[in-house]
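The authors assume throughout that readers already know how a fold can be written as discrete tokens. For illustration, here is how one protein appears when written out as sequence plus structure tokens.
>
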Amino acid sequence: MSSSNICLNNSSLKFSYNNLNPNRLFNTDTQKVFFRTTRTITCHSVDVKSPNVGISAVNELGKKSKEVIEDEGRYLVGTYARAPVVLEKGEGCKVYDVEGKEYLDLCAGIAVNALGHGDSDWLKAVVDQAAILTHVSNVFHSVPQVELAKRLVTSSFADRVFFSNSGTEANEAAIKFSRKYQKHTSTNGKVPATEFIAFSNCFHGRTLGALALTSKVQYRTPFEPVMPGVTFLEYGNAEAAVELIRQGKIAAVFVEPIQGEGGIYSATKEFLQSLRSACDDAGALLVFDEVQCGLGRTGFLWAHEAYGVFPDIMTLAKPLAGGLPIGAVLVTERVASAINYGDHGSTFAGNPLVCSAALAVLEKISKPAFLSAVAEKGLYFKELLKQKLGGNHHVKEIRGFGLIIGIDLDMPASPVVDACRNSGLLVLTAGKGNIVRIVPPLIITEQEIEQAVDILSQTLSVLDKNNPK
């Protein structure tokens, strides 16, 4: 990265020239971004953090990867600090970049590709449906949508389903349904409950309603004011939650049975049961966000089944259509009875193509043998991690449930993530950036688990290089 001094408005400013985006200059003194226009340079006074990917990392890439990354810097809105990898194809639990390098994928598109890449049954469902009917909107009925809703209802606590296109949209719908339910059930002039409870380390999405329920302040602050009326409590603090619910102002409690983005924290049965009882007593709704932890990832079809506690509303998304965009809100008849025509909707949601893909995914994942295998592989993965990583002084805890696993470190995890990637293993971070998050395709083999653990154990040494004692 080269630097230069530019005089602007009688001030001398020092810039770093970013060859990822020749129209973007970075002021190394003020930490502000300037954009080159045809005649001048204009300042956008926003605080920014240095990107995770350095220019040296990009310069080490092959020509094709470098070209794609440079074009991304020119043409896409800069909302993602992407890893310097340009993926081109995948098969099973492996993905390949444009230069042909192979990676073992423990990201699975952020817990999306439950059946891995290129599953033959999923592919057949998509191709066959695409040849018949792709999209009709929700003005008309379609068979795959009804069949998928039927399958979701028969395999869950729910009586009805609403389809959306993503997890955040599913949570937006759940917010609206909760508010509408409270208005629908308030009688004798009673003011309906409109407030919400969410918990520390939670993540429910990035649209304004879902964002209001997401605990990370840095996600919400740039877009305030967000939806008011949300109280954040400590995850697992049943006493505080029960006390607030009993006040009668809470429309719904949103909780992840297992927090993914927040750091792979699992609820206890006692905590969820306390929420269930308090909501029943006060007339509040209990919403389980299973966007990341649901649909087989824990070894149960639904994560809450492990606790024997059932919600009024459950939101789903990530793995449901095996990589195609879908979200779903599962509700009881009691909640559904409050929703009328026109209360909510979506043009694309639940179209025949995506629902056919989801039916193929659900058919495989819901089989008892498949779920049992996920549970066994999850136990094996955790045990192997504890054997090979547990003695490292940087590893505070290895936790998780099924194939959603977190390695809690005493320092930022990004050096490990980068070293793993260089060694052909893709993993994620979570929490405050100190968690290595492992959410592989549910079809991962024991041999691939062993390969992953070997790479992880070898790469932990980078933490000592980054933080010498």
About this structure: DSSP finds 16 helices and 22 strands in the chain.
